[in-house]
Design goal:
- By secondary structure, this protein is an alpha/beta fold.
- It has two domains: 179 residues, Periplasmic binding protein-like II (D-Maltodextrin-Binding Protein, domain 2); 164 residues, Periplasmic binding protein-like II (D-Maltodextrin-Binding Protein, domain 2, 3-Layer(aba) Sandwich), CATH 3.40.190.
- It is 42% helix and 15% strand.
- It is built from 15 helices and eleven strands.
- Strands 1, 2, 3, 4, 6, 7, 8, 9 and 11 form a nine-stranded mixed β-sheet that branches. Strands 5-10 form a two-stranded parallel ribbon.
- Helix 2 links the parallel strand 1 and strand 2.
- The longest helix has 19 residues.
- The protein starts with a helix and ends in an 11-residue tail after the last helix.
- Pfam families: PBP_like_2 (PF12849).
- It comes from Sphingomonas yabuuchiae.
Length: 348
């Protein structure tokens, strides 16, 4: 049964190569990327530089779909009808890799492009909040203590906080930023206050995830879609609200919003780079090895990424946190030697 699948993948790749070189209907001569709204501005900068370096090159098509939704598109197959790159604000999950492999796209380059932080932000006219992971868990969890969340104000969560309504604008469930919020903030707050939660995590990780990271759906948490700029606008309109997005958007909008202190640490470049800020996370770009020969300029695009992710580069000026040099070197080697991902240690 493997031979038909292999032949199908070969024909798909051949079609991709033919179309990339102008053969047949549905020609695709430009690079396509889907995925994270957090990584989107960085890939867009690389796309702009890619075209500037070669005016004859077709402008890459970069779509902000969210990490989870992007993975579904990315893993649906190889060939001109499927994206070349996936921007991701978390690592690929083992289940997503299996989906890729089942559709002939199992040879992937996993490239860490830098670091980001899950930033809680408020208007400069806001109440100047300082929160803990426990505060956030108690405010946003669907069932803190195993009961429906009855907290209506931040003072209900913690008497030291202001008695203003809990209103948090954040990413949808398909977003890698939402996954990181769950893993880096909610789960840790849960483990700190819920008896038995750490033991549950060791015994049954999926049950722990459902217990600790399910977000309430009664209006306190507002799904703002994949448009992080919309969250900034909401904070300007409602100074008492909080927003959740990647650090780069906080950095870009410093004139209108401030970062919220979490566990005594402000979201700053140095705090995130040093892993002192509780919302620190790596950012990735995934590339299909099968497309490197088929899509014009794809290798050059990845090399351009590596040339621009350093501490003094344009991506950092846009809000990316540069990875430690050892990780940068490893990512450059993955691009140069086209080292494919080993799925053995992917998260579940």
């Amino acid at each position: 049964m493997r031979l038909p699948c292999l032949l199908a993948a070969m024909f798909a790749l051949a079609a991709c190569h033919d179309q990339a070189n102008g053969g047949g209907a549905g020609v695709r001569e430009q690079i396509t990327a889907v995925g994270s709204s957090t990584v989107y501005p960085f890939t867009t900068i690389i796309a702009e530089r890619f075209v500037a370096a070669d005016p004859d090159a077709k402008a890459p098509v970069i779509e902000s779909t969210g990490t989870g939704a992007g993975m579904k598109l990315f893993c649906a197959g190889i060939g001109a009808g499927h994206p070349d790159l996936e921007d991701a604000s978390r690592r690929m999950k083992a289940s997503e890799y299996r989906d890729c492999a089942a559709h002939g796209a199992g040879e992937l380059l996993e490239i860490q492009i830098g670091i980001d932080g899950i930033a809680f932000a408020e208007s400069k006219r806001g109440p100047h909040m300082a929160l803990t992971s426990v505060d956030i868990y108690r405010a946003l969890s669907a069932h803190p203590g195993g009961k429906p969340n009855a907290a209506r104000t931040w003072a209900d969560v913690n008497p030291a906080l202001p008695a203003i309504p809990i209103q948090v604008y954040g990413p949808p469930a398909t977003s890698g930023t939402r996954d990181a919020l769950a893993e880096l903030i909610l789960a840790k707050g849960c483990d700190a206050v819920e008896p038995g939660a750490p033991a549950l995590a060791a015994r049954d990780p999926e049950a722990h995830r459902l217990f600790c990271t399910r977000v309430r759906e009664d209006g306190a948490y507002i799904d703002a879609g994949e448009n992080d700029n919309l969250i900034v606008q909401k904070l300007q309109a409602n100074p008492d609200a909080l927003g959740v997005f990647g650090y780069s958007y906080l950095e870009e909008n410093r004139q209108t919003v401030d970062g919220v202190t979490i566990n005594g640490v402000k979201p700053t470049y140095d705090a995130i780079a040093a892993d002192r800020y509780p919302g620190s996370r790596p950012l990735y770009v995934y590339a299909k090895k099968a497309h490197l020969d088929a899509i014009p300029g794809l290798r050059a695009f990845l090399r351009l990424y590596a040339e621009n992710w350093g501490k003094d580069g344009p991506l950092v000026r846009r809000g990316l946190i540069a990875s430690p040099e050892a990780i940068q070197a490893r990512s450059r080697a993955i691009i140069a030697r086209e080292i494919t991902l080993d799925p053995a240690n992917l998260p579940s």
